[in-house]
TrEMBL record:
Source species, domain of life: Eukaryota
Domain At2g35280-like TPR residues, every copy: 4-95
Matching InterPro entries: At1g67623-like, At2g35280_TPR_dom
Higher taxonomy: Eukaryota, Viridiplantae, Streptophyta, Embryophyta, Tracheophyta
Pfam families in the record: TPR_27
Protein name stated in the entry: At2g35280-like TPR domain-containing protein
Organism for this UniProt entry: Brassica carinata
């Protein structure tokens, strides 16, 4: 049975199924600890218009300090017109990884802090109040808070 599932997964990946790439990205990133492969699969997922893959790929690139690339992908979700897409993506991703420990490095933290607008343009604890200056920081900070919740 496992062999059939593995074959099916490989077939889905080979045919560019965005959902399969999203799931494989999660597995590679958080269970296999393979950042390169994980990002590749999330990128493939995003190219197939998977919103969750796009959102997580953008967030992870923010954490890696690849701000321009990250913003390009996060902006595909049109958050300026409709923030609810980002909110829904976050809820689905959070549910997918809720039982997985996320390793948050000092570099990720530094890259997040470098995004923080100064002076603060909107209250940090209100995700509904955002602008171009604070959206990216607030979203990455949301992932950070989630990652350290059990530390």
């Amino acid at each position: 049975m496992v062999t059939k599932h593995k074959q099916f997964k490989e077939l889905c990946l080979a045919n560019g199924n965005p959902e399969a790439h999203y799931i494989e990205g999660l597995l590679q990133l958080f269970l296999e600890d393979n950042i390169g492969n994980g990002l590749y699969h999330l990128w493939q997922s995003s190219n197939g218009n998977n919103e969750n893959g796009t959102y997580l790929y953008g967030l992870l690139n923010l954490a890696l300090g690849k701000y321009r690339k990250a913003k390009k992908f996060l902006d595909k979700l049109n958050w300026r017109e409709n923030i609810s897409t980002s909110d829904h993506c976050w809820e689905r991703i959070k549910n997918s990884i809720r039982d997985i420990r996320i390793e948050w490095t000092h570099d990720y933290y530094t890259n997040m802090v470098n995004l923080q607008p100064w002076p603060h343009c909107h209250p940090q604890d209100n995700m509904a109040l955002i602008c171009n200056k604070c959206y990216y920081y607030k979203r990455l900070n949301q992932l950070y808070e989630f990652a350290i919740k059990d530390d």
